Amino acid sequence: MTMQLVLSLFPGIDLLGLAFNREGFCVVQGDDVIFGGDIRDEHYPVGKFDGVIGGPPCQMFSSLAHMVRHNGHQPKFGNLIPEFERVVLEAQPQWFAMEEVPGAPEPRVDGYGVHSFLINNRQFGEPQNRKRRWSFGTRGARRVLMVDVVALEHRDFEYAAIGGRSGLGHGRDPRRAAQLKKLHRKTSALRDFSRSQATYRKLLELQGLPESLDFPGFTIEGKCQAVANGVPLPMGRAIAKAIREATERGVAPDL
Q1: What topology does CATH give the domain 5-145+232-249?
Q2: 140 backbone φψ class: left, alpha, beta (φ>0; ψ -120 to 50)
Q3: Which of 28, 146, 173, 241 is at a distance of 20 to 30 A from 72, taking alpha carbons?
């Protein structure tokens, strides 16, 4: 098995890159805004990478974007999918994989066929309800990516981790609302720092990460946002495994 070299764009703390690394890929991280980088300044050599992965900022296409605009603001980063497309076109990898929210448009890159599909983190046996759009592009003909999922979803249900102030989506489930109300009563006497630490540990759990994981130099709010914005590790590994298997054995074009 030849180790594939993958470029990870918009990495943040790069949970997606971690997933690909654990599935046997060699991952090179692009620059990121949290370290002062700008995707618009990034350029990469032609033909050096087997694949390009990444999730452009999703705020513009999020279901909550209308609330931001209603309050007189605009989503922070705008649409950076064209920058992902540009890097792929310049680097000319054999394949690419882009992760986004369900309402985002599919990427379009000249010379690549794209298989776009929706998948939920619960389909990998996890409690977190987090649906995402994945676009798998291959040079030449469109090829279908076959992702392994479980037969039965997790018996528990957790709303998606989000990058907002609370870090946890409330949703509309009355049972969840009652649980949150009880949690707020229980923690009302605690300091904000303690409550944030509890939220951070919960986010690590939802994202499939070890409780001991830490990011020195980040504030607790920064840690929560960075973890919540990442791709859940189980989902990322399932996508990476499917791509590895597909590219090793070759996949028939989708006719």
Answers
A1: Rossmann fold (3.40.50)
A2: left
A3: 173
